[in-house]
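Q: Is it fine to ask for two folds in a single conversation?
A: Yes, each is treated on its own. Send the first.
Q: Here.
A: Result:
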Amino acid sequence: MTNAIAYWAMFAVGLAGYFGMPWFVVLFGAAILTLIAVMEQLRYRPQLAAIGRTDLLHTTAMASASNGLLASTAAYGVGLVVRIVF
């Protein structure tokens, strides 16, 4: 289910780029992708607590935020390029 939400979020941000919506739509897409990734990472909290490495969750959350922003920006950029080409 979360994969479908992530794909639809990417598609929506791409459409926003295609239709020329403001750039801050990228931030909404990045927030959705980051929340999905962090919720997936929380499933591993018990295993990380067992080995004493819960500090990794903060690092992976930051990595997820940057990946979400990059993916959302790329989708928006693709939408802009498609609008210009077609």
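Q: Second one now.
A: Result:
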Amino acid sequence: MAVGAAAGLAAATSGWAVTAAPLPRLLLVEPALVTDTAIGAATRLIGPDLVRQWRDGLRDEVLAAGGAVALVRWDKVIVLMGLAREAGLATQHEQLDRSVFRVRLQDRRRRNA
């Protein structure tokens, strides 16, 4: 399931109930899931070494944005959720396709505010 950047954002944010907390402003996507080159400024491509990328600054970007929505393959879900929890972020995940998941990372302080 490959998606364009605009369709990816719509797919990433659809289906969740609207609450007092705003939707995250940052979209994380694996390159294999993107079909076009029109990737917005608020989109980060997830590389093959997610742990290194997270520790090299992706964690700080997600925290600064108050959270993020990620479209990732099944093998990155557990790693991403573990890294997010380590950083104090709440997580939710939902299977969109056979091997594609949407993971929502949200700052616990903003969620409870």
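Q: Anything structural to flag on that second result?
A: Two points. The first helix runs from residue 5 to 13. The longest strand covers residues 100-107.
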